[in-house]
């Protein structure tokens, strides 16, 4: 059907709407392809037009004196749009007004209350963690499912985004899913639509293999959502969906303030937890603790950051949210490929890390710093498992995981906590394809009745099992002591299970600690000598023989290790290995223990 908006003889300019065609209840605008005058209309209003028929003739104004034969017919050919009208569109204004209620600027009271706690808003943290201007929000218009007890205006003003801001942004130019509970909205609790938004984003992350950043502050489940006919709400998919990301994509959790119950459960599923010094993390907040008859506590008494850092829950402890965001960006950078620009530390400094006195302790973190690209080292789980240091780093721009025994704790012996920490770290690197560099200085696994009471047998064996399933290259450098099963565990189960096993000149080796080996292996000889200076002299003589026999040079001569190297050449050896090593394809599911 035809609806003319101009009459024959009318002058028009380029882009003017000449006629509207109605088809299947939809209107199609036909615009003037150029300026001119309508010489003739070939169809009347409300007439039916067939496909390909000419509607009118449009004569350029300079040709009006010429015969009125059809020039260029007005048809369905595209024409330039007329300039946008200056008047504001009603539909766009309605959207802008609605979206304004989701922004911090429209919620001064809530923001002021947040400021009083010294913390940032959810949107401020998202803006900081994402590259500038890169965040696009999903589900911004959601409100709490409480329309049966609150007005639409109340919900719009006071429950924006249903207490959780979700979307996709960029970190270092690569897309990630970001989700932040908003403590200014119903204490960051998990509501019905809040869960729906979470589930949607988790599906997007899994399907598209996008890393996830979760700002987890909040109080857990919300009992006040009455719009849905539910009883307990235990049929939610959120927790299973979040856990399903494990081993599939990097997942980092960030906490400032209070994080309890359901929020803490999601946080506990993250690969890495970054927390501020003023945070509290617990599977139940004060109300739940009191309701369970377990006493009355303030929120600050439940799971304070100091406790959670020491027990291994928190991987990275920082002072404030700005540092937490910076750490999250740093962490995700290791899963975004190699850097083309990097700065090597002074190579010669590595020659002085290990003291010449073989019984003098030292800090293996100096070796980690001296091997990693400057500014790249990110220590993880620093408050727990002191016997082994773990960190992410880069070597010549390539991301790696780094393990190092700690002689300052139990002489470097591996106890249960250190073994748990190392095994899980290997799983983390394995799942996300990071080669592992192991710096060895251990007398072996910790032993003794007290140690065995802590299930040492099971804990330390985790290192062997984790290493046996590695799909990433493992490169080891023995800095000093390489004794017994502990040294084997640090090298993937054996010195030839690695892509390379090299030692510094200070390296010393044996099936067990040399002192113990002499006392056990030469007991008869020692007991045959009178106790005192003479026996002690024999012991030192035998010990020196054992030390010489177990020296790094002898180990390399018998091909039990691959080489003895100048510490200053360590990076060159590792770079060669990293260039030669291959990350195998994923075979099956690669899970990362939450512990």
Beta-strand segment tally: 24
Q: How many helices?
A: 20
Overall radius of gyration: 35 Å
Overall outline? elongated
Estimate what percentage of residues fall within beta strands.
15-25%
Mean pLDDT: 91
**Largest sheet data:** 8 strands, mixed
Uncertain spans: 65-76
The SS-based structural class is alpha/beta
Approximate helicity band: 25-40%
Quote the distance from N terminus to C terminus: 70 Å
Task: Kindly describe this structure.
Strands 17, 18, 19, 20, 21, 22, 23 and 24 form an eight-stranded mixed β-sheet that branches. Strands 8-9-10-11-12-14-16 form a seven-stranded mixed β-sheet, with helices on both faces. The chain has 595 residues and is α/β, with parallel strands linked by helices. Residues 65-76 have low confidence and may be disordered. Helix 12 runs parallel beside helix 14 (456-468), helix 14 (456-468) runs parallel beside helix 15 (484-490) and helix 16 packs across helix 18 (533-549). It is built from 20 helices and 24 strands.
Which key phrases capture this entry?
single chain; 24 strands; 20 helices; eight-stranded mixed β-sheet; alpha/beta; seven-stranded mixed β-sheet
In short:
The protein is 31% helix and 20% strand.
Topology of helices and strands:
Blueprint: E1 2-4, E2 11-12, E3 17-23, E4 26-31, E5 36-41, E6 56-59, E7 72-73, H1 90-100, H2 108-116, H3 122-129, E8 136-138, H4 152-158, E9 164-171, E10 174-181, H5 192-208, E11 212-215, H6 238-243, E12 251-255, E13 258-260, H7 261-268, E14 272-276, E15 280-282, H8 286-291, H9 305-310, E16 316-318, H10 321-333, H11 365-371, E17 378-380, E18 388-395, E19 398-405, H12 416-431, E20 436-442, H13 449-452, H14 456-468, E21 474-483, H15 484-490, E22 500-503, E23 508-510, H16 514-521, H17 523-527, H18 533-549, H19 552-557, E24 563-564, H20 570-580
Parallel strand pairs: 10-11, 11-12, 12-14, 13-15, 14-16, 19-20, 20-21, 21-22, 21-23, 22-24
Antiparallel strand pairs: 1-3, 2-5, 3-4, 5-6, 6-7, 8-9, 9-10, 17-18, 18-19
